[in-house]
Amino acid sequence: MRGYDWPRLHAALNDLPTALLLTALVFDIAALATRREGLRLVSFWTLVVGAIGGAAAVISGLQAEDHIAHGEAVHEVMETHEQFALITLGIFAVLALWRIVRERKMGAAERSAVTGLTLVGVAILFVTANYGGRLVFEHAAAIPSRVLQEELHERSEGHHHHGGEEEEEPQAGADSISAKTPAHVDPPGTPPHSHPPGTPPHQD
Questions:
Q1: Each residue of 115-131: pLDDT tens digit?
Q2: Count of domains for the chain
Q3: Confidence band of 196 (pLDDT split at 50, 70, 90)
Q4: Is residue 180 part of a domain?
Q5: Cα 65 from Cα 42, distance rounded (Å)
Q6: Whole-angstrom Cα distance, residue 82 to residue 66?
Q7: High-pLDDT (> 90) share of the chain, %
Q8: Residue 129 maps to which CATH number?
Q9: pLDDT tens readout for residues 3-16
Q10: Is residue 74 one of the residues assigned to a domain?
């Protein structure tokens, strides 16, 4: 893939693993509280699939980094985002492997430890997402310079919409029109006369 395809792919792949890993935590806590086997199985599979999706998101993000024009400020946020993403992936990769090997053999203490580590992973996941959001909403990362310049030009031209329709300039009232119309001047020696309605004030 070339150009801005990798950033778009990265954006598309981010949401699924986030939702799955958060869901895994919710079902894991529910399984501990109720001791229901079905909830434990849902937690297990959502965690495994979420970890795989997280790997895809990280790989696409690493590729996207090489296709985004950016300055020093964006680079610093991007590096922090990348570090937290790798930490998050590492935690959930360990959890997925741990549960694949030990899922049916865990005691209560071990399962509580897994749930605790899952909670830590989700917390770091939200930090990772926060830095990713800063890249987009604060630094306009992955938006081509040409598109950004065109948008800035449109904003400077005052191109606004309200209620789905383009705003129109306010219509000038009669007072403002008459204020801009030059005064009527009668030539010297003109006898007294009247003007039709609407004639601007005249100067003698």
A1: 999 999 999 999 999 99
A2: 1
A3: low
A4: no
A5: 34
A6: 13
A7: 47
A8: 1.20.120
A9: 448 888 888 898 89
A10: yes
